[in-house]
Amino acid sequence: MVDVSVQGDRVVFDVEGLDQLWALRTRLQIPLAHVAAVESDPGQVGRWWHGFRLMGTSVPGLFAAGTFYYHGEMVFWDVRDPAQTIIVSLVHERYKKLILEVADPAATVAQLRAALKGQTAH
To answer: How far apart are CA 33 and CA 11, in angstroms?
Structure first.
């Protein structure tokens, strides 16, 4: 699971617990300006093939955590339960998408969309 917070002009994604071991990452910090979109679409996540695993762990049907190469793009996954995931689309970053399990997808999507809206208002 990943804890998401907005800290100034950055979004911080803290990988929690044993997921740090499986994903080989503890934290991702992304400039808010590089977040293109955020959504929650469990049906889409459940259907996706994760891609070729570059670094991390994948147990089909159970979980995916780490860096994957998918359709020519780098994607970071940390998912056990597709129903609890968000998809963060990025620009100007190593990863094209972050597919993350969070405690409350609706609240996390709302938080990030509000931060993005606030950024464009300035």
So the answer is: 9
